[in-house]
Queue: 4 jobs
Job 1
Amino acid sequence: MGAYFAGMGVLSLSERSTALGFFIIALIHFLTLLGILLSREIVIQMGTYITLLDLIFGILWVLVSFEPASASLTFLAAICLVLITSDEFKNEVKFGY
């Protein structure tokens, strides 16, 4: 998700405020990834809510204007949400197998 938002930031460099917003969101997602890699339970729980927010905003974006970027955000957020809430993922992070 962080790579998606960083890419959107690079694509919108002509509009500085939009690019800055995308880079801040990308930073939040990369910090969440770091917390998941370090097996921090609180970060995994926060990451679930952040991904849920991504899904909600993606759905709203699809409803407002159907664009490839909005559809890809929605599908990517849905896949991430399914993965981060699965028991296999939690066991892998918690126990390392």
Job 2
Amino acid sequence: MARSSGLASLCVAGLLGLGACTSDGIAIAPTAPAELPAEAARTGADAYRQLLDYGAIGLHRTGTEGGERLVDWLDGRLLSYGLQTEVEPFDFMQFAPRKTALTLADGSDVKVFPYWYSGRTGSEGLRAELVDVGSGTPAGFAAASVAGRLVLADIALLSRGNFSNLADVIKRAHAAGALGVVAVIPGPANLIVAANAESEAGLCGLPVLFVGAEDGQRVRRQTGRLVQFTLDADYRSGSSANVIATIPGRSAETLVIGTPTNGWFTTAAERGGGVGTLLSLARYYAERYGANGTPPDKTLVFVFTGGHEVGFLGLQRYIDAHPALIASTYTYVHLGAAIAGRYDYQLADGHIVSAPIADPARTLFVSENPLLQRLVSARQLSSGLIPAQTMLPSILNPGEQRRMYARGVPIVSISGTTLYFHTEGDTPDTTSAALLEPAVQFYGSVIDDLLAADPAEILAANTIAARYAKPIPAPVCAAPGS
């Protein structure tokens, strides 16, 4: 996988002494220090050290041993800061693959990743002819005979994490009597991009396997031949958990700050940036209000939510479990996906270029609330949070923060993507202390301003946003199960 620096081989992490650099200017993540500095620091360097520890856990997937280790690690770290913590487990229906495989007619295997909850083949798998339907348009299906066969389809990625035609391909394949779908995903360097799934939609009826872009070309050459397709999985009760830390204030008026913690792979830039930053902030405020024994005017709650990639479960479970607290929450501050991921982009020839700036896909979501809009705009400028486009949540609100928005709670959120979003390539070197610094300063200054603000004024200014607060529809399967 070829990479080059986009700006004169500048390696910011190397210049700051936070890691080494390759000859083409790419930062190499340093080994995590044994412990954080004794004094709390609200800095990108502190957040990045936390991110390295997060990354060292390995897979952070919901319902796995790695997910359990993550909960224990978060709870222990927050307790070490002197914070009151609660671990709140919750159940969900888990999709646990036992075997996934795609073997071509020539006997070679192709690397695959399953679409969670899409369907199952059983342990023996199935052997069937492969039919190419292109991008899976109605015309593509009409021109092919797919009944009793496996469908091969190209899936388009919008904003990297949005599988724009996947649901339509599955619906059409299911309606036409296909046995399964091989979905070609245009990720970088043949990496497979995993799709978030909806555990609450239940077990669906058409198994789907993802393959990388280069492997997809190899699979396409097997069109019309028999292939062996296996997606064998358990469907059983599983568990995840939210980890909550609280700094009680002099009033019940509450500021909630949250971030999801789980994801498909190591999720260093996707989830680690938010986790590292929120831990750094929690540590800072614990020391700020614990050192002199003076509580804040408002209650501060830090929520690390589970179950993100299987239906944005954690924040909704937190809302459901704490109705009185949500009623007293005057703002929810969300640390979403890739708050400070490096800007990597792939050229037409496949070459990957890296620039030492944050990916411009990063977006600020702020409720239609004039007071919050002014506050956030000022802090975006003062913290140097650039690039970051802005979006009204009533127009687009793709992240987990939409759970709070739907309850009429004012929100402030950053969410974005990177080239390696939802892939095994999302490793600690795809972000850095230097990239995290503006995000940490932005969140810290916004929290300070909100702690100093009048909650009644913020809520009074939220009337327009409150009109858009509607229940989120229940998820459904593209291909209903039996």
Job 3
Amino acid sequence: MAKTLLAIFVLFAAIGVSLTAILPPNTVLNPLKFKLDSASLKSPISNQDLQLKVADTGNRQFAVQIGLYSDLTQASFALNKLELSQTANIFATHDNQRQWYVALLGPFSTIDNAKHWQQQHFNLATSLVQWPDSPPEQTVKQEQTTP
């Protein structure tokens, strides 16, 4: 009985040592280079809402669109390969045909800021778009009270 237990212990030790030699060293995983907007997954944004309007009024924010993907896995894979100086945002969008995943950098307070960032950082085919409005469930209302 003791010989059997010793043989099992030696066998497991040999397996452990051989696996340690074969497997790669413990590496830290790279952090994700994007944020996924979960609200847009439940209620996708219309592609038309991202298009720049000629007569833009109000407090709009802007973004640099760095990708448009038909699949979320494809979008995350592509963004993790890019060398970005800031975190990208993925929003689910839709048109009349299907759902898309758009990768945006921003928001920028003015279109000039977005253009400047686009010219400084990308040689890729990018476009300027409007930053999506916050969905109603994410909007925080602050009420003013009078003393």
Job 4
Amino acid sequence: MLFLENLLFGIRADAAYTIRRLRRTILFGAIAAVFLLTAYGFAIFALAVALARDFGVVGAALAVSGGATALGVAIIAYVLVANSFERRARLPMSVRLKMATQQAGMAAAGTALTGGGMLGSRPLVSLATVAVVVFAGTRLGLWSKK
């Protein structure tokens, strides 16, 4: 019971640390975002004033809005392309589940052979365990070549 209490205390301490860090990150991130958006707004205003001297107020407004629109469209296009590449690169769920079962079977066989000195002390048990794992893997079609 003492082990379980120590484990739960460790999990609680880790969770509290993570929550404090996340709260601090969100708070200071929001403050930084406010300052950055303010600076961005003044930069756009200064650009509009500078362009208004050369092209007039309407020309400056059109140039600033056109530039912002072009940047927005470029960012949306980048996100769509990146998501498309990631979606294609991700394996389907059936393949990922099959790989996970194969890895679990291999880990079980490896543990049966080497874990806890079983190979030296109980060779018949390790042989039976490996036989069961291989039999289950072949009967369930985990290692079949399709």
